[in-house]
Amino acid sequence: MCDVSILYSFRRCPYAMRARMALLVSGVAYAHREVLLRDKPAAMLAVSPKGTVPVLVRPDGTVIDESIDIMRWALAQKDPEDWLSRADAALVAEFDGMFKHHLDRYKYAGRYDADPLRHRAAGLAMLAGLGERLAAQDYLGGASRGLSDIALFPFVRQFGGVDAAWFAAHAPRRVREWTAVLMASDLFGQAMVKLAPWAEGPD
After folding, report:
1. Which residues are CB-neighbours of 131 under 8 A, at least 6 positions away?
2. Rounded CA separation 23/2 (Å)
3. How far is the C-alpha of 165 from the C-alpha of 163, rounded, in Å?
4. Count of other CB atoms within 10 angstroms of residue 99
5. Boundaries of every domain in the chain
6. Which secondary-structure segment (H or E) carries 5?
7. Does domain 84-187 have CATH number 1.10.3720.10?
8. Cys-Cys with 116: which of 77, 109, 146, 186 at CB 3.0–4.6 Å?
């Protein structure tokens, strides 16, 4: 059994991004196993048959395979920036639910047989609410970044990346600025380092 936690991750997955950022800021030691989603390792499927990332396997064998749960677990070990005190569970749930619904149907309209412009408009309306909150403060929970910022940010970033020119012209200014600040952070840079896919074999 490994003496540190093992994280199965995929660099471009927004769920995995936020889990990695929380683990990194917490300072919790973990072994990163980058996976190819088209060729998921048997070791990952053995501990989490649903086959999605991220998956964290703790040294005692306990498996955490929901990204928000990984974030909260990491921060419960150590929370140097006090992220948990700035966690808005309702806001995170709203964006994990409805915003992700619209994002998927905007980005992958063909897959869902959806009208992308309708879902883009619905997503933009939700971003307007973030813009109102950010008009009065630098981050969603106040003057410093917290769990809510890091939980939502990868999905807002993905929304903006579907059509960057449209996002620059239409997204609320404060949402664009907030997204840019988080993208430029050292923490995000560390979380997005490219790693070779993990190959199964003797540890």
Report:
1. 171, 172, 173, 174, 175
2. 17
3. 6
4. 21
5. 5-82, 84-187
6. strand 5-9
7. no
8. 109
The SS3 assignment for 171 reads: coil
pLDDT by position in tens, the chain (length 203): 578 999 999 999 999 999 999 999 999 999 999 999 999 999 999 999 999 999 999 999 999 999 999 999 999 999 999 999 999 999 999 999 999 999 999 999 999 999 999 999 999 999 999 999 999 999 999 999 999 999 999 999 999 999 999 999 999 999 999 999 999 999 999 999 999 999 987 65
Give the three-class secondary structure for 127. helix
As assigned by CATH, the class of the 5-82 domain is: alpha beta
Amino acid at 173: R
Query: Dihedral of the CA atoms 103, 104, 107, 111 (nearest 10)?
Result: -160
Examine domains 5-82 and 84-187 and report if their fold is the same.
no
The model's pTM:
0.96
- Which of 20-46 are b and which e, b meaning 16 or more Cβ less than 10 Å from the residue's Cβ? bbbbbbbebebeebbbeeeebeebbee
Helix (H, G, I), strand (E, B) or coil at 97: helix
DSSP per position, 32-69: EEE-BTTB--HHHHHH-TT--S-EEE-TTS-EE-SHHH
Residue type, 172: P
